[in-house]
């Protein structure tokens, strides 16, 4: 039996391998193999649990199988394979058993296989590898520490907040600084991270911050609507971590600490005046972090990502996601809502109702109970501007708004040439406000008289008067109406007289014309 504990005790005390070989009686090759396996499996110190038997079983598991007549298992290979997507312990046992039988060896039963792997994983102090499949998730968070940029005019130090995103399998990370942690920058950070990775994972794992999760309910958290839209666009799913459960996203939690030490701390004394300048420095540091070799596993973050994980990511959409933001607003009595000190109309039926507003860079959409009721081009520039859709107005308001010189001229054209001349005359000799009041009275006449009556009366008015007015036109219309009524009455009267006298036989009937 190899005295593994004695060999490692001496090695950790900085004793040379030649001296260890002489002291324990083992060959230098044996001593070298024990030290090599201990380093490979991460054994850096000894405790009371690590007896000689425990160490020998841990460092040389294949010997245990051979001694009992079973086909040995390469647990390191099993562990590495188990981290791959869709690979299960059942599948690995099936492959192991097939290989053993083909070689004429005895395989472990599945139960023993699973128990031995559990012991191996426990000794190796591993997190359950099934939670770290390539391309399965992207963990995101804001770092607790901040950086600073300097305001040139005042010399004031402005805080810069650091966003981190990590792919747990490869530990490949993205880092960027922003001037605030509002929803817009939260979404922009996600877009930049996905483009940096060149693909989309199956799930996004954020913390329960307000920009991502509206209500952190225990069963099913209520997501920020803009964040949910982003996930839908990139065909991924948001799975927030539980409140005060950092182990739900250990990769990003560990990366945040690592970033704080490697990037934030190293740039703490760096003075810059623009966020772009700061991010340039951050990207340089980030490249170093992603390309440096791991201490306890082969390769680097970038190498493992490119070789083992990138192919599992979903493809990015052809066009970048258009940033959206959701707000809530109350419809005012003037059937407008206020959004960022600009005003947009909605149908007047929704006055005093609360509505949801979806904002993009160039469009505003208004929703009531998930149904879209209005949309407007987004206003920019001077505050207090109005965007009003005439169809959203009550009838009386719409008529008032449409009462302008242009619309009055169009109305006159529907009556006739004389009316067009009369309306133009009114607009020319009066100021606009007074002219519109006169025209309002004129247009009311169309409810009492037909177009033909209006046109004929206006023609008469223009012939008899050098200064035609609406009051004179009314007189012409009334006289014309009375004249028609009188003519109709006379006609009816003549017809009545004929009916009252009955049939007149004449003198011939009575023989009065006889000669």
TrEMBL record:
In Swiss-Prot or TrEMBL terms, this protein is called Mobile element protein
Q: For this protein, what is any one GO molecular function term?
A: nucleic acid binding
**Family (UniProt):** Belongs to the transposase IS21/IS408/IS1162 family.
Pfam family for this entry, one: Mu-transpos_C_2
Q: Which GO terms describe its biological process?
A: DNA integration
Please tell me the species this chain comes from.
Gracilibacillus boraciitolerans JCM 21714
Record-linked NCBIfam families: transpos_IS21
Q: Where is the composition biased (Basic and acidic residues)?
A: 487-503
Segment Disordered: which positions?
481-505
Which Gene3D superfamilies does the UniProt record give? Ribonuclease H-like superfamily/Ribonuclease H
Q: What is the lineage of its organism?
A: Bacteria, Bacillati, Bacillota, Bacilli, Bacillales
The Integrase catalytic domain, residue ranges: 130-310
Domain of life, per the record? Bacteria
